Amino acid sequence: HRLAAIVGYGYFRLGVAGLPTEATAKVAIVQSSIDVIFALPTDEEREAHFLQYRDLTRSARQTWPDLDLVLWPESGFPSPDLISDSDEERSVEYFAAAIKSVWHEVTGFPVDFPEPVPMLVGCTTHDPAKQEMFNSALLISNAGQVQFRYFKNHRVMIGEYTPLADWFPVLQGLSPVGRGLTAGTEFGTFEIKGVRFAPTICFETTIPHLIRRQVNTLAEKGQEPDVLVNLTNDGWFFGTSCLDLHLACNVFRAVEMRKTNLVSANTGFSGQIDSIA
């Protein structure tokens, strides 16, 4: 009887699962495979990493010429983002131009492909005025300009920040991340062809209440997302069960929120998960 009740309830819930919006968008998910270590990569390694992302992106454009959006994993974009000027050599305009240049080379527009395509990429955003650095997701528009930013809200302890380091600076010298990253405080969405996307970064999708708060907060603002997007660099956990865990958590978040969940991962598992798993 219990089994029948569970199956019956599940069948009922499938009938009322969140339906996708009538609008549609064609999205390419770039899956990279790059080893991650704490030591800074050499120039040769940086170039190899970039070429892997670039070639995969161009291959996707050749296969699907009518793409509406390209997703890159967390920290995959090579050019940093700047949101305040520190001096003449580190101007916002200079870094914006660098981002646009990389976008042109990656997407092949207009030399190799006649139409531009926006990208959601993992990046590092710097705010020199406040001496802050964020783990961010940037939407680069059809014009090659940063149109939207999401700063990771939930940082990974030790990996992205050192506990109590703001009060005891001596701790910064004991950790490879030093002072670490600043946590974001807001959620946001962006629209592509009438479809509203809400990004998260890395292991944020392992925290059920964070994603529920994200969706509920955005819904209260009249910005309820149609699609969840997770940009992640799971290269830190290659060879461990964390890769399987993260995928399983992304499945649960899709079902709990009744939303399609797109995952773009380095080394981990990328994919599209619908609202019924």
Task: Describe the structure in your own words.
- The protein is an alpha/beta fold.
- It has a single domain (25-273), classed as Carbon-nitrogen hydrolase (Nitrilase/N-carbamoyl-D-aminoacid amidohydrolase), CATH 3.60.110.10.
- Helices cover 29% and strands 21% of the residues.
- The chain is built from 5 helices and 11 strands, in the order αβαββαβββββαβαββ.
- The strands form 2 sheets. Strands 1, 2, 3, 4, 5 and 6 form a 6-stranded mixed sheet that branches. Strands 7-8-9-10-11 form a 5-stranded mixed sheet, covered by helices on one side.
- Strand 5 (132-140) and strand 6 (146-151) form a beta hairpin.
- Helix 4 (208-220) packs parallel to helix 5 (242-257).
- The longest helix is centred in the first third of the chain and has 21 residues, at 43-63.
- The radius of gyration is 20 Å and the shape is globular.
- The two termini are 25 Å apart.
- The mean pLDDT is 91.
- This is CN hydrolase domain-containing protein.
- Keywords: Acyltransferase, Cell membrane, Membrane, Transferase, Transmembrane, Transmembrane helix.
- One of its GO terms (biological process) is lipoprotein biosynthetic process.
- It is a multi-pass membrane protein.
- Its main location: membrane.
Indicate the topology.
Blueprint: H1 2-15, E1 27-29, H2 43-63, E2 69-71, E3 81-82, H3 92-107, E4 119-127, E5 132-140, E6 146-151, E7 190-192, E8 195-201, H4 208-220, E9 227-233, H5 242-257, E10 260-266, E11 271-273
Parallel strand pairs: 1-2, 2-4, 3-4, 8-9, 9-10
Antiparallel strand pairs: 4-5, 5-6, 7-8, 10-11
Helix pairs in contact: 4-5
